[in-house]
Structure formats: C-alpha cells, structure tokens
Amino acid sequence: MAENHYENPPLTISKIGIIGAGVSGIAAAKQLYHHNPVVFEASDSIGGVWRTCAYNSTKLQSARKDYEFSDFPWPNRDDPSFPTHVEIVDYLESYAKHFDVLKFVKFNSKVMELRFVGQQGTTQLGGNGGAYGSPLPGHPVWQIAVQTNGSQNLQWYAFEFVVVCIGKYGDIPKIPSFPHNKGPEMFQGEVLHSIDYCKLDKDAASQLLKGKKVAVIGFKKSAIDLAVECAEANQGPEGQPCTMVVRTLHWTVPHYSVWGLPFFLFYSTRASQFLHEKPNQSFLRTMLCYLLSPLRRGVSKFIESYLLWKLPLLKYSLKPDHPFEEDYASCQMAIMPENFFTEADKGNIVFKRSSNWWFWKEGIEFDDNTKMKADVVILATGYDGKKKLKTILPDPFRSLIEYHPSGIMPLYRGTIHPLIPNMAFVGYIESVANLHTSELRSMWLARYVDEKFKLPSAENMLEQIYKEMAVSRRITRFYKRHCISTFSINHGDEICEEMGWNSWRKRSWFAEAFSPYGSQDYRLKN
C-alpha cells in the first residue's frame, strides 16, 4: 500500500466502500454487488432523508411508477395516490432485502474522516491525459475512519474505490446570517430548523405548534408542508395562524394535469425536450432551438395560465416574477397539498413577503419596518450539502468541491469528479426523478468500475461538465442547483452510449417521441 504521512492505523481492507444507505447508496450497492462493497450508514436503518428528514405528512411528489427501480416495480404501482414517506421506506427496505444488499450495510457507522493514500499528483491535469488509470488499481487508495455506535474509538478501513452517497439534504442545516444583535439569541421564543422538526413524533410536533404564533421561513416544499401541519394543529377558536415568510416565490402545481393534458407531454418526452437546449448539440439544432423559442415560452405561459386559474396565486400575491420553465429547469417545482389554500382561506395560513428579516425580542422584524410577534420560528431554509462533504474530505480535494467559479460541484455524468481519483458521487445532480437517475448512474458506475469502458481525459470531462452548466445558466436563474430536467433524456442517452447500450429504449418511433422516459425503459436492455 502507498505510504502516507499519518500514523498507520489498523486497517480492514476491501475493494469498494460506499458512504450512505439512502436511495443512492442502496442503488450503488445493488449494482456493485459482485464486488461485495462495504456500506457505512450513520443511522440504524436505510432510507436516508426519507427516514430522517420527513415530516409526519411528507409524501412523494409523483406517482409510484415514476419512483421505482427498473427491476423492482411497486406492488401497487397503479395506485394514483402519492405514497407516504413510510411507504417509501418500506419499498426501499423491500428492494434491499429482495436483492440481499442489507448484508453489506454497517449500521450506526458514521464516517468521520477520509485520507487519500494514493500517488500524489493524481489530480493534476495533463500528463497522462488527466486519467487516473484503473478504478480498481489492486491496492488501497482511500482510508476511511468510522465511528461505530457512538464509540470514541475509530475503526479504519481501506478501499481501492469509494462511492459517496450522503446527498445534498439532511444532516447540516443552512442557517441564515443576521446582523449583530439581531440573531436568534435576541428572541425569547423557540427557534429550530426543519431538520429538528423532523425528529419530533406526531404528538410532540402538535404540542410545539398548537396555540402558538408560528413563523415558517421559506416557500419551498418543506416549508409548504410544514405550514399545513401548523394550520392543522391550530384548528378551532384557540388556534393561531401560521405565517409563511417568503423571500423568493416559486411556482407550485396542484396535480400533474394542465388544462386536461398530462403534464409529461410538456417536458418529459423526446418531442417536448427537443424544444430545449442540450449539451453538445449541433449548429442546426441550436438554430432550431432559437427558432422554436417562442413555442417553448408559449408552453411555459400555457402552464402558468392554468396555475393562475386553478390556484389563488394572485389573491395572495404568490405569483412568481419568473417563468414556470425556470423552476422546472432547476427542479424546484412543488406539488401543492390539497388543503393548503383551504387553510389559507380560513386564515390559518398567512403570507409575508420580505427580502430581509431578523429577530427582535418578541418575534421577527422586516425590512419594511414592520414587526410580527412569534412564539416559534421554524427555518425551512434548506441544507448545506457542500459543507457536509467538506467535513469528511481531506485537502486538496475539499477545495475541489467548488472547483467551478459558479460554486457548482463538477461531476461527469453526474457521478465522477474529474480531479478526485478513485471516487464517485451518486445523488448530487438533480432531476425530476432522482431515484431513476441514481439507479442509471449506478449502472454506469458499475460498468466503469468493471472497466467495460474508459473515461475521457480530465480535460474532456470538465469540458462536458461546463457545457451542461452553461446550458443550465442560459435557461434558469437558479442554475446553481445543477438540475438536468430539461435535457434528462439526452443525459440518459449519453450514459447509455458510453455503456454500449442502444440509447433509444422504446418499442416504436411514436413511443420514442411522445411517451415519457422512466426507470422501466432501462430494464434488462443492452
């Protein structure tokens, strides 16, 4: 094994280590089954954020058949209702048991540190074309320190290849910054982040909210669900309204139908995505995109017209200033709970638009010099996924997480960082169907590890990544979320071609053009 600058700890040596047993970790473990991977899971169960960051009312935002593994359909996949987080965890556990991947998982095993013990200079561009050689070089490249069951003693493992599947959500909350003497320390009430609220059982959550003046900071899916739970806990004469403090508005949809047409027709077919720019497109395709841009904007306006008719967005001043397609292109479209505006109509949910706010002794003060009293403030302000990675990655790799000037993590095929050797990241670039893309990328990763194909040079991988980033930047102001929703089929095509698969997965040209792509299209085809 290569020499390193640390005191050599006792090592358990294996080929592949996987960090995290959420959706991505289980998908990666199944695809890498033949390598007997070791999976480290910090909690006592699989499921990731579906188990640790879910509210009592949390549901999937799509139908079951749009959130399933290619070789393990839901038993009740035609049920039109959205499954609860409990049903999703049950489905993931059934999948893991069916394919016998639980035997690889070490529960209550928290990764505390990674050490690179491979050859120095691996991350330099140039030289041997920027390539790192074999993904399984025959000797350990990474060491991982693991804390088991809260023990103070660390156990060390060594691997030839590591797959990081801890995701962008959960664990480390993103907390707003406040002016001096205007932070939570000034507030006499209770302040918590949505990650803390997730840990409460139903009775404790109800007790926290019932009869209290609650402010929910945010207007994305977690904030919307939280406001509904708050309103439901405050029914009756003793109830208090929940105030949503909204900085940036986003489009929400009541269901997956627009003026009687299925939503997938607008963004999830080859024909619909032909209207949108994609990486590596020809000059002719670029000109066609330009000529068809009025039609693309028309689709967005068509959807907006339905949402403004169906939902009281104008009544509550909740109409975003940006087009719908910008939210879709950044994976920020949320399904509105059925009773959200019913509770708003009853006065149980109220809205406050504000660009800036801070705490005062009895509540929150806004930049328009108004104040509101509050007993509880819940920050639905998201998570710091990059910080989570930086806590375990060593230098110089820690600084490469934000290698691109935009701060976006550069990942080839959404999986490989060109400058971090013998490591993959699954579940970091978003799409409208994250389970499907995690599985497809895990299939690609397994074939790469088995050397069924070789990666391009680091320079060429970075060039491809920057093309994807440039496309995102041109279509949405929220490009830093790094979402591939408007060119997801093209993304799948390129992955298939690299694996040696036929990229057109349907049985007829009509289905190719007008039916949506999903996980079942990638089942047992090569």
Automatic annotation (TrEMBL):
Keyword RNA-binding belongs to the record: no
GO molecular function terms noted in the UniProt entry: flavin adenine dinucleotide binding; N,N-dimethylaniline monooxygenase activity; NADP binding
Which cofactors does this gene product need? FAD
- From which residue to which does any coiled coil extend? none
What sort of enzyme, by top EC class, is this?
Answer: oxidoreductase
The UniProt entry, under PANTHER family, shows: DIMETHYLANILINE MONOOXYGENASE (PTHR23023)
Family, per entry: Belongs to the FMO family.
Keywords for the protein's UniProt record, in alphabetical order: FAD, Flavoprotein, Monooxygenase, NADP, Oxidoreductase
User: What Enzyme Commission number(s) does the record list for this chain?
Assistant: 1.-.-.-
Q: Which InterPro entries match?
A: FAD/NAD-bd_sf, Flavin_amine_oxidase, Flavin_mOase, Flavin_mOase-like, FMO-like
Know the name of this protein?
Flavin-containing monooxygenase
* Cell division in keyword set: no
Binding residue positions for FAD? 24, 41-42
Pfam family of the protein (one): FMO-like
